[in-house]
Amino acid sequence: MSLLNAMILGLIQGIAEFLPISSSGHLSILNNLFHMTTTENGHMFFDVLLHLGTLFSVCVVYWQDIVQMFYEVLGFLHAGPLAGERRAHYPAARLFLMIVLGTLPLFLILPINDMMEGLYYKSVFIAVMLVLTGCILYISDKMQQGKKTEKNMSMLDAIIIGLCQAAATIPGLSRSGTTITAGLATGLRRDFAVKYSFLLSLPAVLGANILAFAKAIRTGVDWSCLPAYLVGTVVAILSGIASISLLKHIAAKGKFGGFAYYCWVVGVLSIILTVIF
What we know:
The chain is mostly helical. It is built from 13 helices and no strands. Helix 1 (3-18) packs parallel to helix 12, helix 2 (23-34) runs antiparallel to helix 8 (123-141) and helix 9 packs antiparallel against helix 10. The longest helix has 30 residues, at 190-219. It is globular, with a radius of gyration of 19 Å. It starts with a helix and ends with a helix. The mean pLDDT is 86.
């Protein structure tokens, strides 16, 4: 793998992982149409590094929230079973609980994980999912501002958003776009829907990479490409941080429509290119 390829793939991973345009869809298009790949020819390990890089991006941007959750969970447990009123003063601990509940539906995907991975190589299917992502984002723009945050979102809200995250493991369907839209549909405040979506990605991405790491080691690692891998990972981290910051800014204005049109254009062009080539 060339240094340029690694940088391009890292940039696409960092941008598309967090902007609601589907990183899996874009990487699949590069693989299927232009033969740029992270999962073949011994480069599966690079794919793992890219995802860990974007995981690190979330930790950097939401570091204070993560630390606060850690301390409040400890405080919540230390409060004891008779400290009901005191427990109401632990919103970050409650956010941690909502993340755990939202992660549980992912276990439903494990029995069909291999089938999901097989869809990665079906270009027309990926393109259709990108068009569907555009439709989801277009709908999200029409939703009214909610009022729920970690203090008053319900367990049912978390499970509904978690189910949508599980559905978004389908390649080409944006995880962030789907979960943010689901959050808005359940009445979450727009800025909190974005934060919850990204924090919800932490256990999902970490769990997926633990499984992928073992598979990557069995497949084999091209250690001669390690410098390119590391450069691509750094690019993924930096572009991931920039993408999260951008989406937070856009969410404050409540406009995802531009991403909808982008997904429609990319989806239709992908179908056309697949037919031609």
